[in-house]
Design brief:
This protein is of the alpha/beta class. It contains 8 helices and 9 strands. Strands 3-5-4-6-7-8-9 form a 7-stranded mixed sheet, sandwiched between helices. Strands 1-2 form a two-stranded antiparallel sheet. α2 crosses α3. The two termini are 28 Å apart.
Amino acid sequence: MQSVSGVDLDIVERGRGRPLLFLHAGEGLWPQRPWLDALAQRFRVIAPVHPGWGRSALPDWMSSVDDLAYLYLDLARQLDLKDAVLVGNCFGGWIAAEMAVRDSRRFGRLVLAAPLGVKFGGLHDRDIADMHGMAKSELDGLAWAAPARGAVDFTKLPETEIAGIVRGREAFALFGWKPYMHNPKLKHWLHRIDIPTLILWGDQDRIVKPETGARWRDAVPGAKLETIADAGHFPHWEQPQAFADRVASFA
Protein backbone atom coordinates (compact mmCIF):
# COMPACT_ATOMS: atom_id res chain seq x y z
CA MET A 1 0.00 0.00 0.00
CA GLN A 2 1.20 3.51 -0.79
CA SER A 3 -0.16 6.72 0.67
CA VAL A 4 -0.92 9.43 -1.90
CA SER A 5 -2.33 12.71 -0.63
CA GLY A 6 -3.53 10.86 2.45
CA VAL A 7 -5.24 8.06 0.47
CA ASP A 8 -3.93 4.50 0.86
CA LEU A 9 -3.64 2.94 -2.60
CA ASP A 10 -2.91 -0.63 -3.59
CA ILE A 11 -0.48 -0.26 -6.50
CA VAL A 12 0.74 -3.09 -8.73
CA GLU A 13 4.09 -2.43 -10.40
CA ARG A 14 5.74 -4.69 -12.94
CA GLY A 15 8.41 -4.44 -15.64
CA ARG A 16 11.22 -2.03 -16.41
CA GLY A 17 11.81 0.83 -18.80
CA ARG A 18 9.70 3.84 -19.69
CA PRO A 19 7.01 4.39 -17.04
CA LEU A 20 3.42 3.63 -18.01
CA LEU A 21 0.63 4.62 -15.66
CA PHE A 22 -2.35 2.34 -16.31
CA LEU A 23 -5.81 3.25 -15.04
CA HIS A 24 -8.19 0.32 -14.94
CA ALA A 25 -11.78 -0.21 -16.03
CA GLY A 26 -14.81 -0.16 -13.78
CA GLU A 27 -14.59 -3.97 -13.74
CA GLY A 28 -11.32 -3.72 -11.86
CA LEU A 29 -7.61 -4.27 -12.46
CA TRP A 30 -7.39 -8.09 -12.72
CA PRO A 31 -3.55 -8.11 -12.81
CA GLN A 32 -3.49 -11.92 -12.99
CA ARG A 33 -4.76 -11.81 -16.57
CA PRO A 34 -2.00 -11.80 -19.24
CA TRP A 35 -2.40 -8.16 -20.33
CA LEU A 36 -0.14 -6.82 -17.57
CA ASP A 37 2.80 -9.07 -18.40
CA ALA A 38 2.45 -8.20 -22.10
CA LEU A 39 2.79 -4.50 -21.30
CA ALA A 40 5.51 -5.11 -18.70
CA GLN A 41 7.75 -6.62 -21.37
CA ARG A 42 8.11 -3.11 -22.81
CA PHE A 43 7.34 -0.72 -19.93
CA ARG A 44 7.57 -0.18 -16.20
CA VAL A 45 3.84 -0.54 -15.61
CA ILE A 46 2.38 1.27 -12.58
CA ALA A 47 -1.22 0.22 -12.06
CA PRO A 48 -3.06 1.62 -9.03
CA VAL A 49 -6.30 0.08 -7.82
CA HIS A 50 -8.78 2.93 -7.74
CA PRO A 51 -10.03 4.17 -4.35
CA GLY A 52 -12.95 1.99 -3.29
CA TRP A 53 -11.89 -1.00 -5.41
CA GLY A 54 -10.11 -4.00 -3.88
CA ARG A 55 -7.96 -3.00 -0.89
CA SER A 56 -7.62 0.70 -1.78
CA ALA A 57 -9.22 3.09 0.67
CA LEU A 58 -12.17 5.31 -0.25
CA PRO A 59 -12.16 8.46 1.89
CA ASP A 60 -15.62 9.75 2.76
CA TRP A 61 -14.87 13.08 1.03
CA MET A 62 -14.03 11.50 -2.31
CA SER A 63 -16.97 11.13 -4.69
CA SER A 64 -16.11 12.46 -8.16
CA VAL A 65 -13.84 11.63 -11.09
CA ASP A 66 -12.29 15.07 -10.55
CA ASP A 67 -11.01 13.77 -7.22
CA LEU A 68 -9.47 10.72 -8.89
CA ALA A 69 -7.81 12.87 -11.57
CA TYR A 70 -6.15 15.08 -8.98
CA LEU A 71 -5.16 12.05 -6.90
CA TYR A 72 -3.35 10.41 -9.82
CA LEU A 73 -1.69 13.67 -10.82
CA ASP A 74 -0.36 13.73 -7.27
CA LEU A 75 0.77 10.12 -7.67
CA ALA A 76 2.67 11.04 -10.87
CA ARG A 77 4.38 13.87 -9.01
CA GLN A 78 5.14 11.68 -5.99
CA LEU A 79 6.75 9.06 -8.25
CA ASP A 80 8.51 11.83 -10.17
CA LEU A 81 7.30 10.40 -13.48
CA LYS A 82 8.87 11.94 -16.57
CA ASP A 83 7.77 11.39 -20.18
CA ALA A 84 5.47 8.63 -18.96
CA VAL A 85 2.73 6.96 -21.00
CA LEU A 86 -0.75 7.45 -19.56
CA VAL A 87 -3.15 4.66 -20.48
CA GLY A 88 -6.75 4.23 -19.38
CA ASN A 89 -9.51 1.82 -20.35
CA CYS A 90 -13.25 2.34 -19.85
CA PHE A 91 -13.64 4.19 -16.53
CA GLY A 92 -9.86 4.55 -16.37
CA GLY A 93 -9.93 6.24 -19.78
CA TRP A 94 -12.34 8.81 -18.40
CA ILE A 95 -9.97 9.52 -15.49
CA ALA A 96 -6.98 9.75 -17.85
CA ALA A 97 -8.79 12.28 -20.04
CA GLU A 98 -9.70 14.36 -16.97
CA MET A 99 -6.02 14.33 -15.98
CA ALA A 100 -4.80 15.27 -19.44
CA VAL A 101 -7.06 18.34 -19.76
CA ARG A 102 -5.68 19.58 -16.43
CA ASP A 103 -1.94 18.88 -16.55
CA SER A 104 0.00 16.67 -18.96
CA ARG A 105 3.50 17.78 -18.01
CA ARG A 106 4.61 14.40 -16.66
CA PHE A 107 3.30 12.45 -19.66
CA GLY A 108 4.60 12.12 -23.20
CA ARG A 109 1.81 9.99 -24.67
CA LEU A 110 -1.84 9.35 -23.90
CA VAL A 111 -3.78 6.20 -24.82
CA LEU A 112 -7.53 6.13 -24.28
CA ALA A 113 -9.05 2.69 -24.78
CA ALA A 114 -12.85 2.84 -25.13
CA PRO A 115 -13.09 5.63 -22.57
CA LEU A 116 -16.26 6.58 -20.75
CA GLY A 117 -16.68 10.16 -19.59
CA VAL A 118 -18.10 11.93 -22.64
CA LYS A 119 -21.60 11.87 -24.11
CA PHE A 120 -21.56 13.09 -27.71
CA GLY A 121 -25.18 12.24 -28.51
CA GLY A 122 -28.34 14.12 -27.65
CA LEU A 123 -30.18 14.23 -24.35
CA HIS A 124 -32.14 11.05 -25.01
CA ASP A 125 -29.44 9.13 -26.87
CA ARG A 126 -27.91 6.16 -25.07
CA ASP A 127 -24.20 6.62 -25.78
CA ILE A 128 -23.10 4.31 -22.96
CA ALA A 129 -24.93 1.09 -22.14
CA ASP A 130 -26.68 0.96 -18.78
CA MET A 131 -24.22 -1.43 -17.17
CA HIS A 132 -25.98 -1.37 -13.81
CA GLY A 133 -29.44 -2.05 -15.22
CA MET A 134 -28.96 -5.42 -16.93
CA ALA A 135 -28.24 -9.02 -16.05
CA LYS A 136 -24.60 -10.07 -16.01
CA SER A 137 -25.08 -12.38 -18.99
CA GLU A 138 -26.43 -9.48 -21.05
CA LEU A 139 -23.62 -7.20 -19.87
CA ASP A 140 -20.99 -9.78 -20.80
CA GLY A 141 -22.56 -10.13 -24.24
CA LEU A 142 -22.16 -6.40 -24.83
CA ALA A 143 -18.72 -6.01 -23.26
CA TRP A 144 -16.87 -8.97 -24.75
CA ALA A 145 -16.41 -10.14 -28.32
CA ALA A 146 -16.29 -13.64 -26.83
CA PRO A 147 -17.87 -13.60 -23.34
CA ALA A 148 -16.20 -16.90 -22.40
CA ARG A 149 -12.86 -15.02 -22.29
CA GLY A 150 -14.12 -13.03 -19.33
CA ALA A 151 -15.71 -15.89 -17.44
CA VAL A 152 -14.81 -16.00 -13.75
CA ASP A 153 -15.72 -18.80 -11.35
CA PHE A 154 -16.53 -16.67 -8.34
CA THR A 155 -17.03 -19.78 -6.18
CA LYS A 156 -13.28 -20.38 -6.36
CA LEU A 157 -12.25 -16.88 -5.29
CA PRO A 158 -11.33 -16.16 -1.66
CA GLU A 159 -13.87 -14.12 0.29
CA THR A 160 -11.45 -11.19 0.57
CA GLU A 161 -11.24 -10.96 -3.22
CA ILE A 162 -15.01 -11.19 -3.63
CA ALA A 163 -15.41 -8.44 -1.04
CA GLY A 164 -12.99 -6.29 -3.05
CA ILE A 165 -15.01 -6.85 -6.23
CA VAL A 166 -18.24 -5.88 -4.47
CA ARG A 167 -16.59 -2.75 -3.06
CA GLY A 168 -15.44 -1.87 -6.56
CA ARG A 169 -18.94 -2.15 -7.99
CA GLU A 170 -20.28 0.13 -5.27
CA ALA A 171 -17.52 2.64 -5.97
CA PHE A 172 -18.13 2.45 -9.74
CA ALA A 173 -21.76 3.39 -9.14
CA LEU A 174 -20.73 6.17 -6.77
CA PHE A 175 -18.38 7.83 -9.24
CA GLY A 176 -20.53 7.34 -12.34
CA TRP A 177 -24.13 7.34 -11.17
CA LYS A 178 -25.33 10.82 -12.07
CA PRO A 179 -24.93 12.02 -14.70
CA TYR A 180 -24.50 8.48 -15.90
CA MET A 181 -20.84 7.65 -16.61
CA HIS A 182 -19.89 11.02 -18.07
CA ASN A 183 -18.99 14.58 -17.24
CA PRO A 184 -21.11 16.96 -19.38
CA LYS A 185 -18.30 19.54 -19.30
CA LEU A 186 -15.43 17.29 -20.30
CA LYS A 187 -16.06 17.30 -24.07
CA HIS A 188 -15.70 21.08 -24.02
CA TRP A 189 -12.19 20.78 -22.56
CA LEU A 190 -10.75 17.98 -24.70
CA HIS A 191 -9.05 20.61 -26.90
CA ARG A 192 -6.71 21.23 -23.95
CA ILE A 193 -5.03 17.83 -24.39
CA ASP A 194 -1.60 18.77 -25.72
CA ILE A 195 0.24 15.45 -25.99
CA PRO A 196 0.06 12.87 -28.78
CA THR A 197 -3.05 10.77 -28.19
CA LEU A 198 -4.14 7.37 -29.43
CA ILE A 199 -7.78 6.37 -29.25
CA LEU A 200 -8.10 2.57 -29.20
CA TRP A 201 -11.35 0.68 -29.67
CA GLY A 202 -12.37 -2.94 -29.84
CA ASP A 203 -14.28 -3.47 -33.08
CA GLN A 204 -17.02 -5.38 -31.24
CA ASP A 205 -17.49 -3.02 -28.30
CA ARG A 206 -21.20 -2.65 -27.56
CA ILE A 207 -20.84 -0.82 -24.23
CA VAL A 208 -19.67 2.32 -26.02
CA LYS A 209 -20.18 1.91 -29.76
CA PRO A 210 -17.00 1.97 -31.91
CA GLU A 211 -18.23 5.00 -33.91
CA THR A 212 -17.83 7.00 -30.69
CA GLY A 213 -14.09 6.64 -31.14
CA ALA A 214 -14.22 8.94 -34.18
CA ARG A 215 -15.89 11.60 -32.07
CA TRP A 216 -13.08 11.37 -29.54
CA ARG A 217 -10.48 11.53 -32.34
CA ASP A 218 -12.09 14.64 -33.75
CA ALA A 219 -12.30 16.33 -30.34
CA VAL A 220 -8.69 15.75 -29.23
CA PRO A 221 -6.18 17.78 -31.27
CA GLY A 222 -4.05 15.56 -33.49
CA ALA A 223 -5.41 12.32 -32.06
CA LYS A 224 -5.38 9.12 -34.09
CA LEU A 225 -7.88 6.29 -33.92
CA GLU A 226 -7.16 2.59 -34.24
CA THR A 227 -9.36 -0.45 -33.74
CA ILE A 228 -8.45 -3.88 -32.44
CA ALA A 229 -10.14 -6.80 -34.14
CA ASP A 230 -12.05 -9.45 -32.23
CA ALA A 231 -12.21 -7.36 -29.06
CA GLY A 232 -14.98 -5.70 -27.13
CA HIS A 233 -14.91 -3.05 -24.42
CA PHE A 234 -11.76 -4.45 -22.77
CA PRO A 235 -9.27 -4.85 -25.64
CA HIS A 236 -6.32 -5.30 -23.27
CA TRP A 237 -8.01 -8.37 -21.74
CA GLU A 238 -9.32 -9.91 -24.96
CA GLN A 239 -6.30 -9.20 -27.18
CA PRO A 240 -3.44 -8.52 -24.74
CA GLN A 241 -0.60 -8.90 -27.24
CA ALA A 242 -2.28 -6.78 -29.90
CA PHE A 243 -3.06 -4.15 -27.26
CA ALA A 244 0.54 -4.09 -25.98
CA ASP A 245 1.87 -3.92 -29.55
CA ARG A 246 -0.36 -0.93 -30.38
CA VAL A 247 0.66 0.93 -27.24
CA ALA A 248 4.37 0.20 -27.74
CA SER A 249 4.26 1.20 -31.40
CA PHE A 250 2.54 4.47 -30.55
CA ALA A 251 4.74 5.28 -27.56
